[in-house]
């Protein structure tokens, strides 16, 4: 690509990229309360909640370092796996999806906030686990 057409291409890309960044910022903010108990990195050490690293396509109750409640252990034995859709349902009503789980956190009522949070978790947790590079999430 010639330098000139490269500039044009970058200008063209600018709008969707800044939209994506705004979405990631909203998702990151929505994740702030979760951070008290969860990390999106694999090597976060002991926390109150399981690591959410590589969550999508991971088994429910799938952090080997974490001692899960019976309901999440049962979902794990039944072969349940995290998908973006399950994550959104869970974020709306954790206790409704896994009754009796040990996560004392209510669902997120706001649909827009919930969608931004789900997208953020999907992109960051799986991005970090699939690359050797450490990110500061
Ligand atoms: C007060 C601590 C706490 C907060 C805050 C919290 N969680 Fe949790 N979370 C937990 C615990 C503890 C578990 C494991 C529950 C169990 O074993 O029943 C859990 C489990 C989960 C799981 C299932 C993980 C797996 O391995 O299957 C997901 C996904 C999750 N939390 C997401 C979130 C998100 C997103 C937020 C923020 C909106 C959040 N949590 C806020 C403590 C917390």
Automatic annotation (TrEMBL):
SUPFAM superfamilies: Cytochrome c. Residues 1-22 form the signal peptide. Keywords: Electron transport, Heme, Iron, Metal-binding, Signal, Transport. InterPro entries: Cyt_c-like_dom (IPR009056), Cyt_c-like_dom_sf (IPR036909), Cyt_c_1A/1B (IPR002327). Residues 22-125 form the Cytochrome c domain. GO terms for molecular function: electron transfer activity; heme binding; metal ion binding. It comes from the Bacteria. This is Cytochrome c domain-containing protein.
């Amino acid at each position: 690509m010639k330098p000139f057409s490269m500039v044009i291409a970058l200008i063209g890309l600018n709008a969707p990229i800044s939209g994506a960044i705004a979405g990631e910022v909203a998702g990151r903010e929505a994740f702030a309360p979760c951070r008290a108990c969860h990390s999106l990195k694999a090597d976060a050490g002991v926390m109150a909640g399981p690591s959410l690293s590589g969550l999508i396509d991971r088994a429910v109750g799938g952090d080997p370092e974490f001692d899960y409640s019976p309901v999440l252990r049962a979902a794990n034995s039944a072969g349940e796996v995290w998908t973006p859709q399950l994550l959104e349902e869970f974020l709306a009503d954790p206790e409704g999806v896994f009754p009796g789980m040990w996560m004392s956190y209510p669902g997120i009522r706001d649909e827009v906030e919930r969608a931004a949070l789900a997208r953020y978790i999907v992109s960051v947790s799986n991005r970090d686990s699939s690359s050797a590079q450490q990110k500061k999430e």
